[in-house]
Amino acid sequence: MRYSMQLKEHSMKIEIEREEDGRWIAEVPDLPGAMVYGQTREEAVSRVEALALRAIADRLEHGEAIPELDELFAVPA
After folding, report:
1. Strands of 24-27's sheet, edge to edge?
2. Residue ranges of domains in the chain
3. Confidence at 11, pLDDT banded by 50, 70, 90
4. Predicted TM-score (pTM) of this structure
């Protein structure tokens, strides 16, 4: 089952899917490579948010552009 939601026009969408083995995978499609697994839905979301924040911080540190956001993350209910 795949969940996806975008709450505002300018937010980073998190996509969440449950694998056949029961693990959850969460991904931020706007940030290539921002994909993680978790044993629970909450763990996967928390881990991908942390990874996305590190990726954004790295881009800022290196003077690279980041997306303009009204809200940081949009997570499906």
Report:
1. 2-3, 15-18, 24-27, 35-38
2. 2-74
3. confident
4. 0.76
Buried b (16+ CB within 10 A) or exposed e, 15-39: bbeeeeeeebbbbbeebeebbbebe
Structure tokens at 38: 């978790």
DSSP letter string over 11-57?
A: SEE-EEEE-TTS-EEEE-TTSTT-EEEESSHHHHHHHHHHHHHHHHH
Residues 17 and 2 sit within 8 Å (Cβ to Cβ): yes
Tokens of 72: 């940081």
Fold of 2-74: Double Stranded RNA Binding Domain (3.30.160)
**Sign of the Cα pseudo-torsion (41, 46, 47, 53, in order):** positive
Q: Position of tokens 């921002």? A: 34
